[in-house]
Write a structure and sequence with these properties.
There is one protein chain. The chain has 7 helices and 12 strands. Strand 1, helix 1 and strand 2 (61-68) form a beta-alpha-beta unit. The protein starts with 31 loop residues before the first strand and ends in a 14-residue tail after the last helix. The longest helix is centred in the last third of the chain and has 29 residues, at 193-221. The protein has a domain at 18-150 and 225-275: Metallo-dependent phosphatases (Purple Acid Phosphatase, chain A, domain 2, 4-Layer Sandwich), CATH 3.60.21.10. Helix content is 32%, strand content 19%. It is of the alpha/beta class and 293 residues long. The structure holds manganese (II) ion.
Protein backbone atom coordinates (compact mmCIF):
# COMPACT_ATOMS: atom_id res chain seq x y z
CA UNK A 1 0.00 0.00 0.00
CA UNK A 2 1.52 3.25 -1.11
CA UNK A 3 1.77 6.06 1.37
CA UNK A 4 0.27 9.38 0.38
CA UNK A 5 3.60 11.13 1.04
CA UNK A 6 5.17 9.25 -1.89
CA UNK A 7 2.78 10.86 -4.37
CA UNK A 8 4.56 13.38 -6.59
CA UNK A 9 1.71 15.87 -6.19
CA UNK A 10 1.49 18.96 -4.01
CA UNK A 11 1.35 18.13 -0.32
CA UNK A 12 -1.64 20.41 0.11
CA UNK A 13 -4.52 20.65 -2.27
CA UNK A 14 -6.75 23.72 -2.03
CA UNK A 15 -9.52 23.42 0.52
CA UNK A 16 -12.67 24.55 -1.31
CA UNK A 17 -14.22 25.48 2.05
CA UNK A 18 -11.58 27.94 3.18
CA UNK A 19 -9.74 29.11 0.04
CA UNK A 20 -10.66 30.96 -3.12
CA UNK A 21 -9.43 29.89 -6.54
CA UNK A 22 -6.77 31.91 -8.39
CA UNK A 23 -9.21 32.45 -11.28
CA UNK A 24 -12.52 33.43 -9.63
CA UNK A 25 -15.42 31.07 -10.26
CA UNK A 26 -17.84 32.55 -12.77
CA UNK A 27 -21.50 31.72 -13.10
CA UNK A 28 -22.78 33.37 -16.24
CA UNK A 29 -26.53 33.01 -16.21
CA UNK A 30 -27.54 29.47 -15.46
CA UNK A 31 -25.10 26.62 -15.85
CA UNK A 32 -25.91 24.04 -18.50
CA UNK A 33 -27.15 20.99 -16.69
CA UNK A 34 -26.26 17.43 -17.69
CA UNK A 35 -26.97 14.11 -16.04
CA UNK A 36 -23.38 12.95 -16.45
CA UNK A 37 -20.04 14.39 -17.57
CA UNK A 38 -16.90 12.43 -18.45
CA UNK A 39 -13.50 14.10 -18.81
CA UNK A 40 -10.06 12.50 -19.03
CA UNK A 41 -6.45 13.04 -20.05
CA UNK A 42 -6.19 16.46 -18.41
CA UNK A 43 -2.48 15.93 -17.61
CA UNK A 44 -2.27 18.44 -14.74
CA UNK A 45 1.38 19.08 -13.94
CA UNK A 46 2.43 19.42 -17.57
CA UNK A 47 2.74 22.43 -19.86
CA UNK A 48 0.48 20.71 -22.37
CA UNK A 49 -2.52 20.80 -20.03
CA UNK A 50 -5.15 23.30 -21.18
CA UNK A 51 -6.28 24.21 -17.65
CA UNK A 52 -7.81 27.57 -18.66
CA UNK A 53 -10.16 25.87 -21.11
CA UNK A 54 -11.16 23.25 -18.53
CA UNK A 55 -11.79 25.92 -15.89
CA UNK A 56 -14.07 27.68 -18.38
CA UNK A 57 -15.84 24.36 -19.00
CA UNK A 58 -16.43 23.75 -15.27
CA UNK A 59 -17.76 27.30 -14.84
CA UNK A 60 -20.39 26.77 -17.56
CA UNK A 61 -21.49 23.19 -16.95
CA UNK A 62 -23.11 21.31 -14.07
CA UNK A 63 -23.91 17.64 -13.68
CA UNK A 64 -25.22 15.03 -11.24
CA UNK A 65 -22.26 12.71 -11.75
CA UNK A 66 -18.74 13.62 -12.86
CA UNK A 67 -16.37 10.91 -14.01
CA UNK A 68 -12.65 11.68 -14.13
CA UNK A 69 -11.52 9.00 -16.57
CA UNK A 70 -7.79 8.90 -15.86
CA UNK A 71 -4.56 10.77 -16.65
CA UNK A 72 -5.94 13.65 -14.59
CA UNK A 73 -2.65 14.37 -12.80
CA UNK A 74 0.49 13.51 -14.73
CA UNK A 75 2.60 11.83 -12.05
CA UNK A 76 5.12 10.58 -14.61
CA UNK A 77 6.04 14.11 -15.64
CA UNK A 78 5.81 15.56 -12.11
CA UNK A 79 8.34 13.01 -10.90
CA UNK A 80 10.85 14.39 -13.41
CA UNK A 81 10.17 18.06 -12.86
CA UNK A 82 7.81 20.04 -10.71
CA UNK A 83 5.33 22.12 -12.67
CA UNK A 84 2.18 23.20 -10.87
CA UNK A 85 0.86 26.68 -11.78
CA UNK A 86 -2.10 28.19 -9.86
CA UNK A 87 -4.51 27.28 -12.69
CA UNK A 88 -3.82 23.61 -12.06
CA UNK A 89 -4.80 24.04 -8.43
CA UNK A 90 -7.91 25.83 -9.71
CA UNK A 91 -8.98 22.72 -11.62
CA UNK A 92 -8.59 20.64 -8.44
CA UNK A 93 -10.48 23.34 -6.49
CA UNK A 94 -13.42 23.20 -8.92
CA UNK A 95 -13.62 19.40 -8.76
CA UNK A 96 -13.51 19.35 -4.95
CA UNK A 97 -16.01 22.22 -4.70
CA UNK A 98 -18.35 20.30 -7.00
CA UNK A 99 -18.11 17.27 -4.74
CA UNK A 100 -18.88 19.45 -1.69
CA UNK A 101 -21.97 20.82 -3.47
CA UNK A 102 -23.30 17.30 -3.92
CA UNK A 103 -22.07 16.16 -7.32
CA UNK A 104 -21.03 12.52 -7.29
CA UNK A 105 -17.38 12.49 -8.40
CA UNK A 106 -15.79 9.21 -9.50
CA UNK A 107 -12.05 9.14 -10.28
CA UNK A 108 -10.89 6.21 -12.41
CA UNK A 109 -7.06 6.50 -12.57
CA UNK A 110 -5.11 5.96 -15.78
CA UNK A 111 -1.48 5.19 -16.54
CA UNK A 112 -0.06 8.67 -15.93
CA UNK A 113 -1.78 8.81 -12.52
CA UNK A 114 -1.23 5.14 -11.68
CA UNK A 115 0.02 6.22 -8.22
CA UNK A 116 -3.69 6.74 -7.42
CA UNK A 117 -4.54 3.11 -8.33
CA UNK A 118 -3.61 1.58 -4.93
CA UNK A 119 -6.35 3.77 -3.38
CA UNK A 120 -9.09 1.81 -5.18
CA UNK A 121 -12.25 1.94 -3.07
CA UNK A 122 -11.11 4.97 -1.06
CA UNK A 123 -13.00 8.23 -0.79
CA UNK A 124 -11.01 11.49 -0.70
CA UNK A 125 -12.98 14.63 0.07
CA UNK A 126 -16.05 13.23 -1.66
CA UNK A 127 -14.07 11.87 -4.62
CA UNK A 128 -14.53 8.11 -5.07
CA UNK A 129 -11.41 6.33 -6.36
CA UNK A 130 -12.33 3.32 -8.52
CA UNK A 131 -10.23 1.17 -10.84
CA UNK A 132 -13.32 0.93 -13.03
CA UNK A 133 -16.97 1.85 -12.77
CA UNK A 134 -20.29 0.82 -14.27
CA UNK A 135 -22.51 3.75 -15.21
CA UNK A 136 -26.22 3.25 -15.80
CA UNK A 137 -27.71 5.76 -18.23
CA UNK A 138 -31.17 7.33 -17.94
CA UNK A 139 -32.34 4.78 -20.51
CA UNK A 140 -31.00 1.88 -18.46
CA UNK A 141 -27.90 1.12 -20.52
CA UNK A 142 -24.88 -0.14 -18.61
CA UNK A 143 -21.59 1.49 -19.56
CA UNK A 144 -18.18 0.27 -18.40
CA UNK A 145 -16.00 3.26 -17.47
CA UNK A 146 -12.24 2.64 -17.74
CA UNK A 147 -9.26 4.80 -18.69
CA UNK A 148 -8.22 2.33 -21.38
CA UNK A 149 -4.51 1.77 -20.71
CA UNK A 150 -5.18 -1.89 -19.92
CA UNK A 151 -5.55 -2.47 -23.65
CA UNK A 152 -2.00 -1.28 -24.35
CA UNK A 153 -0.66 -4.82 -23.99
CA UNK A 154 -2.76 -5.80 -26.99
CA UNK A 155 -1.87 -2.66 -28.90
CA UNK A 156 1.77 -2.30 -27.83
CA UNK A 157 3.31 -2.58 -31.28
CA UNK A 158 1.76 0.64 -32.54
CA UNK A 159 1.15 2.51 -29.33
CA UNK A 160 3.27 5.59 -30.04
CA UNK A 161 1.61 6.16 -33.38
CA UNK A 162 -1.56 7.31 -31.67
CA UNK A 163 0.20 10.48 -30.68
CA UNK A 164 1.20 11.51 -34.17
CA UNK A 165 -1.33 14.27 -34.52
CA UNK A 166 -1.98 17.24 -36.73
CA UNK A 167 0.51 19.46 -34.88
CA UNK A 168 3.32 16.97 -35.40
CA UNK A 169 2.32 16.63 -39.03
CA UNK A 170 2.41 20.41 -39.56
CA UNK A 171 5.82 20.63 -37.90
CA UNK A 172 7.08 17.86 -40.15
CA UNK A 173 5.82 19.70 -43.20
CA UNK A 174 7.88 22.76 -42.23
CA UNK A 175 10.84 20.51 -41.55
CA UNK A 176 10.39 19.00 -45.00
CA UNK A 177 11.02 22.38 -46.64
CA UNK A 178 14.21 22.95 -44.63
CA UNK A 179 15.54 19.44 -45.19
CA UNK A 180 15.08 19.69 -48.94
CA UNK A 181 16.65 23.14 -49.13
CA UNK A 182 19.79 21.60 -47.61
CA UNK A 183 19.59 18.53 -49.83
CA UNK A 184 19.35 20.77 -52.91
CA UNK A 185 22.49 22.66 -51.90
CA UNK A 186 24.30 19.35 -51.49
CA UNK A 187 23.08 18.30 -54.90
CA UNK A 188 20.87 15.54 -53.49
CA UNK A 189 17.49 14.70 -55.00
CA UNK A 190 14.20 15.72 -53.38
CA UNK A 191 13.24 13.47 -50.51
CA UNK A 192 9.70 13.58 -49.23
CA UNK A 193 9.48 13.72 -45.49
CA UNK A 194 5.81 14.44 -46.03
CA UNK A 195 5.38 11.02 -47.60
CA UNK A 196 6.90 9.45 -44.50
CA UNK A 197 4.70 11.61 -42.26
CA UNK A 198 1.57 10.83 -44.25
CA UNK A 199 2.32 7.16 -43.88
CA UNK A 200 2.67 7.61 -40.12
CA UNK A 201 -0.58 9.57 -39.87
CA UNK A 202 -2.34 6.85 -41.85
CA UNK A 203 -0.94 4.32 -39.36
CA UNK A 204 -2.17 6.50 -36.48
CA UNK A 205 -5.68 6.51 -37.95
CA UNK A 206 -5.49 2.75 -38.32
CA UNK A 207 -4.22 2.46 -34.75
CA UNK A 208 -7.15 4.47 -33.38
CA UNK A 209 -9.66 2.38 -35.32
CA UNK A 210 -8.06 -0.84 -34.11
CA UNK A 211 -7.91 0.41 -30.51
CA UNK A 212 -11.63 1.27 -30.58
CA UNK A 213 -12.43 -2.24 -31.83
CA UNK A 214 -10.30 -3.88 -29.12
CA UNK A 215 -11.99 -1.83 -26.36
CA UNK A 216 -15.49 -2.47 -27.72
CA UNK A 217 -14.77 -6.19 -28.01
CA UNK A 218 -13.56 -6.31 -24.38
CA UNK A 219 -16.73 -4.48 -23.30
CA UNK A 220 -18.88 -7.00 -25.15
CA UNK A 221 -17.23 -9.92 -23.36
CA UNK A 222 -18.04 -8.12 -20.08
CA UNK A 223 -21.72 -8.12 -21.00
CA UNK A 224 -22.21 -4.33 -20.85
CA UNK A 225 -24.06 -2.22 -23.42
CA UNK A 226 -21.21 0.22 -23.92
CA UNK A 227 -17.85 1.50 -22.78
CA UNK A 228 -16.47 4.95 -21.94
CA UNK A 229 -12.71 5.44 -22.06
CA UNK A 230 -10.02 8.02 -22.79
CA UNK A 231 -6.29 7.38 -23.10
CA UNK A 232 -5.74 7.81 -26.87
CA UNK A 233 -6.73 11.52 -26.92
CA UNK A 234 -9.27 10.94 -29.65
CA UNK A 235 -12.92 11.78 -28.90
CA UNK A 236 -15.41 9.47 -30.55
CA UNK A 237 -18.84 7.93 -30.19
CA UNK A 238 -19.92 5.10 -32.44
CA UNK A 239 -21.42 1.65 -32.37
CA UNK A 240 -18.98 -1.20 -32.85
CA UNK A 241 -20.39 -4.72 -33.19
CA UNK A 242 -23.46 -3.87 -31.13
CA UNK A 243 -21.50 -2.09 -28.39
CA UNK A 244 -21.59 1.68 -27.85
CA UNK A 245 -18.01 2.96 -27.87
CA UNK A 246 -17.42 6.37 -26.29
CA UNK A 247 -14.12 8.20 -25.90
CA UNK A 248 -14.20 11.54 -24.07
CA UNK A 249 -10.97 12.79 -25.72
CA UNK A 250 -8.53 15.02 -23.81
CA UNK A 251 -7.73 18.50 -22.46
CA UNK A 252 -4.30 18.82 -24.08
CA UNK A 253 -5.26 19.37 -27.71
CA UNK A 254 -8.86 18.40 -28.34
CA UNK A 255 -10.50 19.95 -25.22
CA UNK A 256 -13.50 17.63 -25.38
CA UNK A 257 -15.91 16.13 -22.88
CA UNK A 258 -18.52 13.41 -23.15
CA UNK A 259 -21.91 14.29 -21.66
CA UNK A 260 -25.17 12.49 -21.01
CA UNK A 261 -28.28 14.66 -21.24
CA UNK A 262 -31.07 14.13 -18.70
CA UNK A 263 -32.97 11.99 -21.24
CA UNK A 264 -29.96 9.69 -21.73
CA UNK A 265 -28.81 11.21 -25.04
CA UNK A 266 -25.02 11.19 -25.33
CA UNK A 267 -22.97 13.98 -26.90
CA UNK A 268 -19.34 15.03 -27.30
CA UNK A 269 -18.75 18.70 -26.42
CA UNK A 270 -15.92 20.44 -28.30
CA UNK A 271 -15.11 23.16 -25.80
CA UNK A 272 -12.52 25.10 -27.80
CA UNK A 273 -15.12 25.56 -30.53
CA UNK A 274 -17.73 26.67 -28.00
CA UNK A 275 -15.36 29.28 -26.59
CA UNK A 276 -14.45 30.50 -30.09
CA UNK A 277 -18.13 30.85 -31.04
CA UNK A 278 -18.88 32.69 -27.83
CA UNK A 279 -16.20 35.31 -28.40
CA UNK A 280 -16.94 35.71 -32.13
CA UNK A 281 -18.84 38.92 -32.99
CA UNK A 282 -22.55 38.36 -33.54
CA UNK A 283 -23.24 37.57 -37.16
CA UNK A 284 -25.49 40.06 -38.90
CA UNK A 285 -28.12 38.28 -40.90
CA UNK A 286 -28.74 40.52 -43.87
CA UNK A 287 -31.51 39.75 -46.30
CA UNK A 288 -30.24 38.15 -49.47
CA UNK A 289 -29.91 40.68 -52.29
CA UNK A 290 -32.87 40.63 -54.59
CA UNK A 291 -32.07 38.84 -57.80
CA UNK A 292 -32.67 40.50 -61.12
CA UNK A 293 -35.63 38.87 -62.77
MN1 LIG B 1 -3.44 7.40 -20.64
Amino acid sequence: MASISTLPIPARFPDPFTTDPHIPERVIGERRSYRTVWVSDIHLGTRGCNAAMLIDFFDHVDCETLYLVGDIIDGWRLKKRHFWPPEHNDVVWRVLKRAKRGTRVVYVPGNHDEMIKPFDGFDFGGVEIRREAIHETATGKKLLVVHGDDFDAVMLAHRWLAFVGDAAYTALMKCNVAVNAVRKKLGLPYWSLSMVAKHKVKNAVQFIGRYEEVVAHAARTRGVDGVVCGHIHSAEMREIEGVDYYNDGDWVEGCTALVEHHDGTMEILHWAQEVAQRSAPAQLSLPAPARAA
